[in-house]
Specification:
There is one protein chain. This protein has helices spanning 3-11, 44-49, 304-312, and strands at 50-52, 71-73, 93-95, 102-104, 125-126, 130-134, 144-151, 156-161, 164-169, 176-183, 191-201, 206-216, 221-234, 242-247, 255-262, 266-272, 278-280, 283-289, 294-303, 335-344, 352-358. The protein is mainly beta. A hairpin with a 2-residue loop joins strand 17 and strand 18. The longest helix is centred in the first third of the chain and has 9 residues, at 3-11. The radius of gyration is 27 Å and the shape is globular. The two termini are 32 Å apart. The relative contact order is 0.13.
Length: 369
């Protein structure tokens, strides 16, 4: 279903039972024999909750407007001059997937729920970029205490240590992190597979980094086994969405489209020919499958506080140390709608991809990059 058809379904939901459904029977159908129905006096409630859209000068079939006799909620008028829930007006921007930067991003270590069979990979290097601090509110003992794990010098960070998940950055500022338990109690394995992801944004690109390692609860220490980095490219004005390709040894072997954006207030993602996993923490990361006969789509709504925090954390593009120009926008909007769709036919040499957002340039920041 196309974007336009989906929006059309939402617009007519109040008047029809599902997109493509038949309109309800006319409320004043004539009885058998041709006798005219008795006139009914409209109740005050009906007069205040609906408006008749019948128009003698606009016969049925002349447009895609509802048929005469249907009542729509007050606030909806012909020509979309006034709507109770306006349809977003978006202009799709095409982009070439093949022109995006690519990187090899390994899958995270599998979660170990029993603590048995831990591989020798546990013997990693000390994770010097992690900071483990005691939770000031904790009253535990050395063999069962609460700590906070965070990442040094990261504008945005998302962390996962076994079942413990946390993040820092964005509207939460530099505070935050993952709360986890140290010691030999709690019914949790003593050695936890760990992954922490960091993000630093710039006007012309975003630096994404991921580290995989292990967290030893008895010693309350973390080790790192491997690291990977990627540079993502902005797709729209305002640097609301960045993208790169996650590939195998080569992109011909396998690849996926990774999208990075501010923390989403709501999000939906689907994939054909593969999963479309999404992670929402300090920032949002969505992975769409890329393959012949497949593709995927994502639509997200980002609240303005998250977008402003995203822009405030943006670093300089050069060594001058100058921050990007200050944010300025003419009218306040509560949120921004963003979406990406990508599809590749069986016979297509490369995927067809589009991106859109509403408003088109929410922060008045000009062209990306």
């Amino acid at each position: 279903m196309t974007l336009d058809s989906r929006l059309s379904c939402a617009f007519l939901a109040a008047a029809m039972m599902g997109c493509g459904g038949a309109p309800p029977a006319a409320p004043h159908a004539a009885p058998p024999g041709g006798a005219k129905p008795a006139a009914r006096k409209a109740s005050p409630a009906a007069a205040t909750t609906s408006v008749e859209v019948a128009d003698p000068s606009h016969p049925p079939g002349a447009s895609n407007e509802p048929s005469p006799g249907l009542s729509l909620p007050v606030g909806i008028r012909r020509g979309s001059q006034q709507e109770s829930t306006p349809r977003p007006h978006v202009t799709p921007i095409p982009f070439r997937v093949a022109e995006l930067p690519w990187a090899t991003i390994p899958d995270p270590f599998p979660q170990n729920t029993t603590g048995a069979g831990v591989p020798n990979l546990a013997l990693g290097d000390t994770a010097t970029d992690l900071v483990i601090t005691t939770n000031a509110a904790d009253r535990g003992t050395p063999d069962d205490r609460s700590v906070i794990a965070s990442v040094k010098d990261a504008a945005f960070a998302q962390l996962k240590f076994g079942p413990y998940v946390g993040w820092s950055g964005g509207v939460y500022g530099t505070s935050g992190g993952a709360y986890l338990r140290c010691g030999n109690r709690g019914g949790v394995p003593l050695l936890l597979p760990s992954r922490w992801e960091t993000l630093k944004t710039r006007a012309s690109g975003a630096d994404y980094a991921v580290a995989d390692g292990w967290f030893e609860r008895t010693q309350c220490k973390a080790s790192v086994v491997r690291r990977a980095t990627a540079t993502a490219k902005p797709l729209v004005p305002g640097q609301t969405v960045y993208a790169f390709r996650a590939c195998g040894t080569t992109c011909a072997e396998k690849q996926a489209l990774v999208l990075i954006m501010p923390r989403a207030q709501s999000i939906v993602a689907t994939g054909v020919g593969g999963d479309a996993p999404k992670e929402v923490g300090a920032f949002t990361k969505v992975t769409l499958p890329l393959r012949r006969g497949g593709g995927g789509s994502v639509m997200a709504r980002i609240a303005m506080p998250d977008l402003l925090a995203w822009r405030a954390a943006m670093g300089p593009d050069d060594k001058s140390g100058k921050k990007p120009k200050s944010v300025s926008f003419g009218s306040f909007v509560a949120s921004v709608l963003v979406g990406v769709e990508v599809v590749q036919g069986v016979d297509d040499a490369e995927p067809v991809a589009i991106v859109y957002q509403d408003p088109a340039d929410p922060l008045g920041s000009g062209d990306p990059g």
